[in-house]
Amino acid sequence: MHLMYTLDEQGKRLYTLKKVIDSGETTKSAHPARFSPDDKYSRHRVTLKKRYGLLLTQQKDLKVLGQ
Fold first, then answer.
1. Residue 6 · residue 16 · CB < 8 Å
2. CA–CA separation, 31 vs 12, rounded Å?
3. Does the keyword rRNA processing apply (predicted)?
4. Is 44 exposed, middle or buried (0-12, 13-18, 19+ CB in 10 A)?
5. Mean pLDDT of the chain
6. What domains are there in the chain, each with its CATH number?
């Protein structure tokens, strides 16, 4: 059994062990995705971020922490 969640009317998470709640709504996993240091697709993600100007080094208004 895995911990699952769904959102209520206020946007807060309601945790359950069910895959589908009584209203018929499917739940989402409350566990983060697995991390692998051997990331096969990082090169592709960086390429796409460069192409669309989404890298942090490409942002104009960077706020330095603590200032």
1. yes
2. 16
3. yes
4. exposed
5. 88
6. 1-31 (4.10.80.300)
The stretch 28-43 carries a mean pLDDT of: 89
Query: CA angle, 19 as apex, 15 and 25 as ends, to 5°?
Result: 85
Residue pair 1/17 in contact (Cβ under 8 Å)? The answer is yes
The reported pLDDT for the residue numbered 62 is 60
Question: DSSP readout, 1-66?
Answer: ---EEEE-TTS-EEEES-SB-TTSPBPEE-SPPPP-SS-TTHHHHHHHHHHTT-SGGG-SSPPPTT
The residue ranking higher by pLDDT, 67 or 26, is 26
